[in-house]
## 1
Amino acid sequence: MNINRQWVLAKRPFGMVDAGNFEYREEPIPEPGDGEVLVRNLYLSFDPTQRGWMEDRESYLPPVGIGEVMRAGSVGQVVESRHADFSSGDLVQTTGGWQDFVIAVPNQGPMGLTKLPPGVTPVMALGILGITGLTAYFGMLDLGLPKAGETVLVSGAAGATGSVAGQIARIKGCRVVGIAGGDEKCAWLREVAQFDDVIDYKKGSVSAGIAETCPDRVDVFFDNVGGDILQAALDHINQKARIVLCGGISGYNATEVQPGPTNLMNLVIMRARMEGFIVLDYMNRVHEAVPELLGWLQSGELIHREDIQEGFENIPNTLNRLFTGQNIGKQLLKLSDPS
Amino acid sequence: MNINRQWVLAKRPFGMVDAGNFEYREEPIPEPGDGEVLVRNLYLSFDPTQRGWMEDRESYLPPVGIGEVMRAGSVGQVVESRHADFSSGDLVQTTGGWQDFVIAVPNQGPMGLTKLPPGVTPVMALGILGITGLTAYFGMLDLGLPKAGETVLVSGAAGATGSVAGQIARIKGCRVVGIAGGDEKCAWLREVAQFDDVIDYKKGSVSAGIAETCPDRVDVFFDNVGGDILQAALDHINQKARIVLCGGISGYNATEVQPGPTNLMNLVIMRARMEGFIVLDYMNRVHEAVPELLGWLQSGELIHREDIQEGFENIPNTLNRLFTGQNIGKQLLKLSDPS
């Protein structure tokens, strides 16, 4: 293979993303310059935040330009290195994008270019020990400040971040309740991820579900969803509650402005806090998180799950799996095994 | 006078409060039991939060019951004491309610019963050194965490709390912009309270006003208003901004559910925080606030203003002055001078 297959952004989305938003392109494999590294992508990461990168609006990263390769986190293998710290064959993490090959440089781009530590697989590097696990770790611990005995509620609980965030709170001694959709996800959360209780948002009122499963109210709400679920949670917060705003997937594909919660005054009445964060701000603290996450993985207290699609042609449709709720755990797509 | 005039809650309000929500009653002056103190109210405090006390819903204090004297903070004078710590003639602060006389006990009720420190007038005790000043002090400093050089935006800026909160931020070296309605309030904020800039919400778009007056975006938003003004402020927050939810006066008299902000995801993008508080939680830290507030008053850095109505018959209508925007600074009603 001496071409670089790419999916470039062709048209900004309105509502759900479909194949028409991207264009397939073939380019020559790029040549690394001095200090650069040529990487072949092995696994691509799919994250709800990618939907935001497709919009032409100010955010924590610039939008992907029309005609540019769609941005995505990735793990790859070094094909050719012109940087002293990298050698051919190294497994690396970078922002590879939706293409076979990428030119990467350390400390450049959202994820820079880093070697996978020994023993860390590509799947772990993109999931439980990567952006997803770090998002759960810092969001839950730094913003959520869970204390043993408290009640922690997680929305999008069967997703990559939510499932880890909930387990971290459980490890810290909290009673953890997850909100997810459908029997399979709820059973997995209860039986495998060991959540204390689960609310199926597809069955009845989430507010009633919270009232029932959180009799002592909610001390920490880790929110990946926003919208009606945030409103329901706000009605059941405890005094001094912490609402960690990780994402708002319910609104990402909306074609109209979505209503905000009408009960924000509960933050005053309950002296509670709502706070947003972006995991990229915590990259200088990764060394705090990874050993602790690894320890929990080794002890079996923390489990992780991935949904791994395959095939370059399936890249655009894989993104939608996040928004249609098809994935349990981390959504990945495998392009190739390491050589 | 040997009767105790009272305004009791007769009917829960729907929308703006009017005279029909209260009933005038005359009762005998109560007799203090052992450990109790009979206080004659001199000044009543009017606060937007009183509107919430009139509703039959869970909050940080139980609702005022139908047929009960309307709850209000007050300064009064001890008429008869059966408590060792109080003597006839003492000036005291308590939750006297809308009546001439009240039986008060230390450490009971929202405000307990405390003697005014020497040199503190009733007006100061209910305003700048009382709940209002303390709300501004702890809300701005503990939650707002203003740093010199930052931009601080205050809504309800000509009100009792907002005007003090803004001045505290200015004293701490911030650039302070106030939002208020009408020429008189805006001129007072600029010229007397020394705000750096002012936005008149009655003249044009608040969002455009914030963009213009806060070119470096908003680091701290001290919000007394909520609604559209909160939405506008959220569009202009800086990274790591702190939104202090002190109140939401725009919604207190609403007869329909008021829409929430549709742009809460800006808290994520800007890694920002929104936090509510109730000043009653800070009563054990009053000793931190009062000396610092007194120092600023003596140096002239901090000014205060009151709107003092008179007459027992005018009590119910005075509450509405807060909601129609008639008051500048602290709203009080004087029943009597100390004897």
## 2
Amino acid sequence: MKKHNFSAGPCILPPEVLQQASEAVINFDDLDLSLLEISHRSKNFVAVMERAQALVRELLEVPEGYSVLFLQGGASLQFVMAAFNLMKAENGKAAYLNTGTWATKALKEARRLGEVVEVASAKDQNFNYIPKNYEVPNDADYFHLTSNNTIFGVQIKDFPQTEAPLVCDMSSDIFSKPINVSDFGLIYAGAQKNMGPAGATVVIVKDELLGHTGRDIPAYLDYQTHIGKDSMFNTPPVFAVYVSMLTLEWIKAQGGVKAMQKRNEAKAQAMYGEIDRNTCFEGTAARDDRSTMNACFLPKAGVPTERFDELWKAAGINGINGHRSVGGYRASMYNALPQESVDALIEVMQNFEKEQG
Amino acid sequence: MKKHNFSAGPCILPPEVLQQASEAVINFDDLDLSLLEISHRSKNFVAVMERAQALVRELLEVPEGYSVLFLQGGASLQFVMAAFNLMKAENGKAAYLNTGTWATKALKEARRLGEVVEVASAKDQNFNYIPKNYEVPNDADYFHLTSNNTIFGVQIKDFPQTEAPLVCDMSSDIFSKPINVSDFGLIYAGAQKNMGPAGATVVIVKDELLGHTGRDIPAYLDYQTHIGKDSMFNTPPVFAVYVSMLTLEWIKAQGGVKAMQKRNEAKAQAMYGEIDRNTCFEGTAARDDRSTMNACFLPKAGVPTERFDELWKAAGINGINGHRSVGGYRASMYNALPQESVDALIEVMQNFEKEQG
């Protein structure tokens, strides 16, 4: 039975990508060797790394003066690397917008290296909205944002204009819509939502921002190390980079990030429409800040969730249990999730409502 | 045509492992979902992580009081983490044995954090031997070794006994033979030789050594972070951990690391026997320090290598070009390389010698 996979991440990938990835594990590029057992310096894998980087540039229209890297360690290592690379050694000062669990973790890592100004926090309402009308100190070395919050289902719709370079963790919405890369100094994202499997991290960094902190940075943590070695400073996560490349090719073939945006907005509109209409459920995120990626909703008081859980499981739906910090349900609708999966969930919600009378 | 894969790493993996890995990319555990698209917190993947850790413990007979972790970033990130976790913040002092490219890199990372004593270096002879009879300062926070040098083909056969805890980068020979884990304070290894594909790193650390540096360690770099979260502090490299688990199961089914040692010694004996016998070639490493994993050899003066290259390529042999720092040839004979591949290479060397008359 085909599953409707709403997993929050690692998450659904296109079936064509999975098919190609599966084949490459046995025989890659007709070499009669597995992708897993060839040198990362072979011309076949170097071509994969170059193609993956070129696709990032093409899909996001990355301007000149930016480097594109594939690293390891996920966003959690980027919390450390962003601060090491951009916060000045003397009187370092960074600004952070606190929009949830991951933003809080990023901010804590920066505090080890210098002063951190939390310009605003949505903690007062369990991170169910994106704070606005905050002030960012002009003398901050950078201003850090988390574009989408998978746990609470809120998303920044308009990025602020600031003196300080913008640093953005886009782990859960990169490649879901167009962005203006030149507005940012640093973008990073774990691959395991819209871009590929767990194990690779993409970094897009403005070269001129690097090398000015006066800080002695460990080699692995220094973006300049990886830029100088074309993401081959050490053995890269070969398979995760390859599957990311395949997924980026798929995005391109589908019409690029504009086409993704159109699909994602249609899915989100249908999903939130049902959440608002259905008398058994209610959304948790502030309406203006609702994420197109992750729709969080709670059963209304007295609604028997056991029966609802039976119904969606019977319909082949997977992964809609909410995060423990919010409870209820979360429908994650990343790029590869088809409209028919959203329609299937909506049908279950409607049938459940009818049953409840 | 079946290839004889002598790649130095990423390297050959058992065909059964590749088959299972390929299938899991389409349908994992009969979930009708790919391994790449399920939550790392699902019970199916948690079972993989636990099994992988348990197999490390079983195969290496890891004693109580040690933690086993699966991380990202390869040995290169461990160069940084080892120093952050073990070198004291005040008057920190570490000892390093310099046996090659990777040892040199490890040592450089430690220098950023404190005093480093290079107890001996084999640089004077292009790292073609393992220094002996060096003194390790008793007050060193730790003593760092690299057990096997893939580039120059030398391997430590007997580990020293020191006051300072031993830290060892075993990236290229872990699981190739039994080791006495209790002799070490910290062992780390990138997976991509004997253990699995690129993208996972195994760490075995003695718990009582941690937490005593007085250093503020970034969360991702702190072993205690990962121990406290059972290697799930952030999304682990799911596929690389899974394939490592499969490879460790394979090692177990073959008879464990003692059986691997027997096979590896037989392969190395045959290979070095031919290098010494054949009048066209000569080995580069000091005899007592020759690696069972990587046999490096050079053509003797006047030997026409183009013809030799033709012959081994025609025999389906892959990956025996030497590293640019040494030149010539390198036959890497990791666990999964069968004796028949070594025999095939030896046959080519013998045929070539006959041709040369």
